[in-house]
Recover the amino acids of this structure.
């Protein structure tokens, strides 16, 4: 029994040693901070394209979590500039993920067509924890794949979403229909997946 307790304690300590807590001071590299703070909050950011080799490599990279913090000027400028980008007349989309503007962080904006007035909302560290077996066939486009639209058939009709909001609240929500497709598309970006990978 004593040996089991020692083993469990060792595994717990070893596991904790592998956990790297992200703090406000180290969640953005100097390069990321420079890019984010290179313009004010209403200035759109350049959208990366898969047709550019350097951009494509970054878009294929898995993102890291962020710490929601209303006092973090870099984070706040990033989410505002992402919103300006997805609403810019030149790009105008229904969602955007941070890697699409060159920042490898788990942040997305999604237009909520399932809510009154179809508001845009920002989500930190979103993860899909359950998918329905029922699928939807939908024509998708992407800001990072300009000039192309394709029909995807592998998206789930509904998802169970786990996420953080800017006020640091933790939420779990069931989302259905077209809005669920947008979430699946944007969360794919956070995992280095482009919608073209979903085509049969």
């Amino acid at each position: 029994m004593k040996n089991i307790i020692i083993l469990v304690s060792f595994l717990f300590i070893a596991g904790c040693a592998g956990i790297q807590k992200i703090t406000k001071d180290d969640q953005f590299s100097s390069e990321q901070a420079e890019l984010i703070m290179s313009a004010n909050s209403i200035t759109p950011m350049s959208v990366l394209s898969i047709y550019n080799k350097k951009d494509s490599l970054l878009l294929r990279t898995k993102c890291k979590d962020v710490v929601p913090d209303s006092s973090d000027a870099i984070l706040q400028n990033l989410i505002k500039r992402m919103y300006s980008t997805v609403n810019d007349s030149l790009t105008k989309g229904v969602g955007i993920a941070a890697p699409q503007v060159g920042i490898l962080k788990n942040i997305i904006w999604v237009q909520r067509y399932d809510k009154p007035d179809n508001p845009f909302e920002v989500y930190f560290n979103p993860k899909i924890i359950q998918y329905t077996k029922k699928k939807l066939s939908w024509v998708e486009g992407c800001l990072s794949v300009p000039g192309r639209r394709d029909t995807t058939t592998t998206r789930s009709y509904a998802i169970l979403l786990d996420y953080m909001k800017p006020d640091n609240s933790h939420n779990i929500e069931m989302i259905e229909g077209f809005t669920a497709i947008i979430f699946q598309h944007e969360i794919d970006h956070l995992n280095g997946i482009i919608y073209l990978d979903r085509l049969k």
In short: Residues 1-21 have pLDDT under 50 and may be disordered.
